[in-house]
Amino acid sequence: MEQQEFYRGLAQRVRDLAEKADPFTRRRLQKLAEQYDVKGGSVVRPARAAERPLPMPRTTPPASIFSGAGEA
User: What is the tally of structural domains in the chain?
Assistant: First the structure.
């Protein structure tokens, strides 16, 4: 039981640090806190911030490759 309390306390301390951190570090600290929650037996996860979606992959090469005289 002591170990669960330890990890819960550690998760809370990491979250407190995350509140004062830059966005990149905040995300990493929040993930770390989630890992400590799992070790501490807590199943409640904090809401994640919305992340930017990745751009759609290109299916055709850019037109600049085909412009101009080419070699055979």
Answer: 1
